[in-house]
Amino acid sequence: MNTENKFLVAAVIALLVVVFIILGVNLLNSSTSVGPTTSSDIMGQDIPVPTGYIVDYAGILDEKTVETLTEKLIAFAKGDNGEIAVLTVNSMNGLSIEEFGIRVMEKWAVGKSGKDNGEIIIVSKGDREVRIETGRGSVITDAQAGEILKTVMVPKLKAGDWAGAISDGIDELIKLTNK
Questions:
Q1: In whole angstroms, how large is the CA radius of gyration of the chain?
Q2: What residues make up the domain containing 16?
């Protein structure tokens, strides 16, 4: 092999090494951390991907409760009055509950197609925050959602009854929606 070919081979190898280094850095930068699957990055915060009617990333609900509540929410969704979902997280990482709730509702699109008539109960365990986010087409008003939080859910949350708070919140939403 002559000197020109050796130089060309060395240049190609060097170029390949640089390409692999760049690809490796890009892969490392784009990989997700261990934890819940996330979708879009909103103001530096990942919004969890909906994996069902109950998404319990905070781990506050036992399997039986998730199963029971999911069955209730599936039955409710079979009607025409919308859908209800639940999201629990450990932290909203600096977002306000209002901003986080709006972003989750936009991303998840809870409700019947084209109607935006759903509600999401959001519990952030570490932030000690709870919210009922309603879609624009929901029959639940912000005042009604606030009343459910104040009189039904927050007292149970303060007592450490996560499952009871969420279950009773769902029951109240269903009751008001079906009126």
A1: 23
A2: 1-31
Task: Classify residue 163 as exposed, middle or buried by CB count within 10 Å of its CB (0-12, 13-18, 19+).
Answer: middle
76 and 115 both lie in a single domain: yes
Burial of 78 (0-12, 13-18, 19+ CB in 10 A): exposed
112 and 168: one domain? yes
* Residue 15 and residue 102 in one domain: no
Question: What is the dihedral angle through the alpha carbons of 67, 45, 162, 138, rounded to the nearest 10 degrees?
Answer: -70
A 10 A CB-CB count for 82 gives 24
User: Do 113 and 169 have their domain in common?
Assistant: yes
Predicted local confidence at residue 47, as pLDDT = 84
Q: How many domains does the chain have?
A: 2
> Residue 171 in 3-state DSSP?
helix
- Quick one: pLDDT at residue 123? 97
Question: With a threshold of 0.70, does the pTM exceed it?
Answer: yes
Nearest in space to 126 (alpha carbons), one of 53, 59, 43, 45: 59
Tell me phi and psi for residue 35, to 5 degrees.
145, -165
